[in-house]
Design a protein that fits this description.
This protein has helices at 2-39, 45-57, 64-80, 94-104, 110-121, 127-136, 143-152, 158-171, 177-183, 190-203, 209-215, 223-237, 245-256, 317-327, 334-349, 355-369, 397-410, 419-426, 497-510, 538-547, 557-560, and strands at 275-277, 280-282, 286-292, 375-381, 385-387, 393-394, 429-433, 436-437, 456-457, 460-464, 479-484, 514-519, 552-554. The protein has 565 residues and is of the alpha/beta class. It folds into two domains: 26-224, Leucine-rich Repeat Variant (Alpha Horseshoe); 275-560, Rossmann fold (3-Layer(aba) Sandwich), CATH 3.40.50.
């Protein structure tokens, strides 16, 4: 009896404390609301963040509608600070927007939810405001929200499609299954298709096998999307039939008829042969390689040349190109083959005496082994940015020769580093519609070499559009591989490293580009006390890669120095 009485007393105290908390909420809310209204337009972004956080922390059910209207307006004001001017995009402070989204995620009351759905669905309002409101739907699992999200994936606005797919994925609902499969076969940018595949991957349903096999029959399916679809098929079936559509279709037909599945032969299918770049496997179909050539990259390299990515001799692309041409009884230009080999040898024997020399040798190795179906370019940077090509080009024998000649004859060290500007430039490589290109299609093995100049119809190419509104232009590279000593970010549009990470994180939510970053140079003795030119900022570079979903590799002298035997 005493035990029961004790429990009841405890419950009474708990309820009493809860009621006291609720009773205090109106006063706390009014205080936070008043301070927010007074300071929300402050020129100080730290203060704008602070008052928004206080408001979010004070939210309770009765005031959710009021809170939602205030926070949506706060997001709108933050975006309007840039006034649509690309040069002022950095003035949109992402932490302020993020804390506002966190507040919207607290909404559960019907009136407040309906208000947010109305904002998200209003095609006449600012798409950026709608984009961030849709992010809040990721935790608001109501029929009204789900129905709205399913409709929003059919909006013409690409960021709205992407945000809607991501929220549907977080909600773990199957309502958009059929439409997602249909979108994969439509003429739309790869960023939307990747978001759709990620949604389907969350569903993990065996019923997706047949529609996905139908999707990859489309030979024009973008490389990164094709790879993600095939990865999902592998997960669902436990089979690996390569990334071409035909073997999967044959396997499916045999399975439906109860017959033994055909044996997969990689040489018979279109396949992107992966390349190793500083130990990172590159399977991307659209790749930009960025190389830091600032003066600090001239510092002595204290690590062994033996620690670079190696490939088996049997994987040599020149040998495979010859073999493929012979099997198809096609002529092959041996002079070009030998020229590529000779350039590779010249770069191989260059002594590695600096960070720059080491980075150049690793880049040459990666480009040499690139699959011909891959499109790529190279950008170097110091105080300015120097694209090798202002379009992404196929990794043909001719283009590999041009890239290696560029690395061998023209690459050299520059001055200081404008770090943010090179990241921003990547977003200005966008898809451009065209009628055709003078590049021949790769052979089925993926090692074909376009030596005949055959015209191949192609609707899109990726090119540099310097004056584009990069926040909402799409179809560019899907992966970036950047090697740097990371001691820069001392000059340029943004020099604060936390601000750089926040800016790129904001952009990566809308544009799906992944930055894979390789740190070279000298690791700091004290990570909190960096030398301005000699130490690599590993913390900064790893956060930057992580903010885009990319990979970070520590290849500093400490990480790569050979162990004593």
């Amino acid at each position: 009896m005493k035990k029961v009485t004790g429990v009841l007393i405890g419950l009474c105290l708990l309820l009493s404390n809860s009621f006291m908390g609720i009773a205090q909420n109106p006063a706390q809310w009014q205080e936070a609301r008043q301070r927010f209204i007074e300071k929300k337009n402050s020129p100080n972004p730290t203060l704008r963040f602070k008052v928004a956080k206080e408001l979010v922390d004070a939210i309770y059910p009765t005031v959710e509608y009021d809170a939602a209207t205030l926070l949506v307006e706060h997001i709108k004001n933050e975006i309007e600070r840039a006034k649509g001017n690309i040069d002022r995009e950095v003035e949109v402070r992402f932490p302020v927007i993020e804390i506002s989204i966190e507040g919207l995620k607290k909404v559960t009351q019907t009136k407040a939810v309906e208000y947010l759905v109305k904002v998200a669905s209003d095609v006449k309002s600012n798409w950026r405001v709608r984009f961030y409101v849709i992010q809040a739907f990721a935790v608001i699992n109501t029929p009204t929200v789900i129905n709205a999200l399913v409709k929003l994936i059919d909006e013409p606005n690409i960021p709205i499609k992407i945000a809607s797919f991501r929220s549907l994925t977080e909600l773990n609902v199957p309502d958009a299954t059929q439409r997602s499969c249909q979108l994969l076969d439509e003429d739309i940018t790869w960023e939307v298709k990747v978001a759709a595949v990620e949604y389907l991957t969350m569903l993990n349903s065996p019923e997706l096998v047949e529609p996905l096999i139908n999707v990859i029959q489309n030979e024009s399916l973008d490389g990164c999307v094709r790879i993600k679809v095939v990865d999902l098929l592998k997960k669902l079936t436990g089979e690996d039939m390569g990334i071409s559509g035909r073997p999967w279709l044959e396997w499916w037909k045999k399975k439906q008829e109860g017959e033994k599945a055909p044996v997969y032969r990689p040489g018979e299918t279109i396949s992107i042969i992966p390349v190793l770049y500083y130990g990172i496997t590159v399977t991307s179909a659209r790749t930009i390689f960025i190389m830091d050539i600032s003066d600090s990259m001239g510092q002595t390299a204290t690590f062994s040349d033996e620690h670079y990515s190696r490939r088996d001799e049997s994987e040599d692309p020149c040998k495979r190109a010859i073999k493929d041409a012979e099997s198809r009884e096609e002529p092959i230009n041996m002079a070009l083959i030998e020229k590529l080999r000779e350039l590779k040898k010249k770069l191989d024997v260059l002594p590695v005496t600096s960070r720059f020399g080491a980075a150049r040798k690793e880049l040459a190795n990666a480009v040499y082994y690139l699959d011909p179906s891959v499109e790529f370019t190279i950008i170097t940077f110091d105080r300015a940015q120097y694209p090798w090509k202002e379009t992404l080009v196929s990794a043909s024998i001719e283009n590999k020769i041009a890239a290696l000649e560029y690395m061998y004859r023209k690459l050299g060290l520059g001055m200081g580093t404008y770090f943010y500007e090179i990241l921003e430039l990547v977003y200005k490589f966008v898809g451009k519609e065209q009628e055709q290109t003078t590049e021949a299609p790769p052979l089925k093995s993926g090692y074909g070499t376009p030596l005949t100049g055959v015209i191949k119809p192609k609707k899109w190419m990726v090119h540099l559009k310097r004056n584009c509104n990069y926040i909402n232009e799409f179809g560019g590279a899907d992966n970036v591989f950047m090697v740097t000593d990371g001691s820069g970010a001392r000059m340029g549009k943004i020099i604060d490293k936390n601000e750089i990470v926040n800016e790129i994180k904001k952009l990566s939510q809308i544009r799906g580009i992944r930055f894979n970053i390789i740190a070279v140079g000298e690791p700091p003795i004290n990570p909190d006390l960096l030398h301005p030119t000699l130490d690599v900022d590993i913390k900064f570079l790893s956060k930057l890669a992580e903010s885009t979903g990319g990979v970070f590799k520590d290849k500093t002298s400490k990480a790569t120095k050979p162990k004593n035997n």
